[in-house]
Amino acid sequence: MNDYRSRFMDLGTHVISFYDVGLGEPVVMLHGLMGSKTLWTRSGIIYALSKYKYRLLAIDLRGHGGTGVPNQENYMKIDYLASDIEKIIKYLDINSLTLVGFSAGASVAVNLSLSIIDRINKLILIAPMIKGDKRYFLSIAKKISKLYEESAIYDIFESSIGLAYSSDFLARNRRSIQTEIERIIKARKDTVKHVAEFYIDNADYNMVPKLEYVLSKLDKVTILISNNDKMIDTSPLKELEHIGNLKIITLTSVGHMIPMEKPDVVVESIINTMGKEA
């Protein structure tokens, strides 16, 4: 039976929380903004993968779940978030791994790959944040900060539900989604403040040249996107479609929250990318 109790690593400047379950080939999983490592348990993905001989590490990003934040300028820059994950991987002496990232976690995964490319076997990106939009990102940060100051934290989550999920999924699961929002707020109200900082610190982010380099080093990268994603612009991926070792899977009738709406597709994509049979 797998043990999904949180583990902690003290970096000196802040503490990182993560799950580390199973034995075998390591798979490191990174969630998106306003989420936590529980994304992978709530969706059932980690349970499905645990049937295979994998060591599964689901890690809370800075300011999310059980992970703290350091006293550092621009502390939510993607490079810094990636550095946190790199320290865990090296501390646990993991020399070979598959990396899975969702949304902003996918951006962290790509930046992390640049630093430890010799340790990365395969890369799976789910609804990745590909490019920042400075004007849009700064407006989001301003809106979030204002609501946070007004203690209208629930409104921040509620306003994003319609963007994150497809209408069909939302109609069937609104109550459970609202319950999860309430749980997140109760557990960690300051997450939204750190999300606002993330948008400020990464307003000029551009994944494309970074991913192009990673593709030159890895033999297989899989990207899952939705043709109905209201939260990210996937059009920049067209610059990379010609690269033979990149597989882009476009899903229909699904929103941004692919891990929650299509966990079976995520599991299948991870297993297939790793060269195993689902």
Description:
The model has no long low-confidence stretch (mean pLDDT 93). The chain starts with 6 loop residues before the first strand and ends in a 5-residue tail after the last helix. With 278 residues, the chain is of the alpha/beta class. The relative contact order is 0.15. It has a domain at 7-131 and 205-273: Rossmann fold, CATH 3.40.50. The protein has an eight-stranded mixed β-sheet with strand order 1-2-4-3-5-6-7-8, sandwiched between helices. It is globular and about 50 Å long. Helix content is 43%, strand content 17%.
What general outline do the C-alpha atoms trace?
globular
Q: Give, in order, the helices and strands.
A: EEEHHEHEHEHHHHHEEHH
| Mean pLDDT level | 93
Q: Would you give the CATH topology of the domain at 7-131 and 205-273? A: Rossmann fold
Main β-sheet description: 8 strands, mixed
Q: For the record, what is the CATH homologous superfamily label of the domain at 7-131 and 205-273?
A: Alpha/Beta hydrolase fold, catalytic domain
Structural class: alpha/beta
Strand order of the largest sheet: 1-2-4-3-5-6-7-8
- The CATH class label of the domain at 7-131 and 205-273 is Alpha Beta
Query: Which second-level CATH architecture of the domain at 7-131 and 205-273 applies?
Result: 3-Layer(aba) Sandwich
Q: How many whole angstroms does the radius of gyration measure? A: 17 Å
Please give the share of residues in helix.
40-55%
**How many β strands by DSSP?**
8
Segments where pLDDT lies below 50 for 5+ residues?
A: none
* Number of helical segments with 4 or more residues: 11
